[in-house]
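tmp note - Nuclear transport factor 2 family protein
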Amino acid sequence: MPERDLDIVKRMYDCFNEKDIEGILAVLDREVAWANGMEGGHVHGHEAVRDYWTRQWALVSPRVQPVAFQCRDDGAIVVEVVQSLFDLEGRPLDGQVQGLKNKTVRHIFRMDKGAVTHFDIQSDGSGGSPRGG
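out:
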């Protein structure tokens, strides 16, 4: 996988965990299709991504820990991620909140010229096909 793209994806996880929306938006294509992990489907473009995270972070404080990276033959970067949810005071949450829960998922990034153009979430129970949420 292109080292530059891998570095961008790794930095995005740091930005997400720090709730640095601007840091992430800086590497997203203006028309990005971003998986909506709360309601399903995708949100499109910077403002929709900003609104999505603002809503999510008003409910929970998620942490994502990448544990493995791979590049598929089609050029997509696949990241195995441990997703953990915390309440707004930092206490661990059990169960599900707005479609989000503690679990291991795969994040699938498609990039063009150093910018993320498409992001999907694939759960273990999804039958192997990427989905939007």
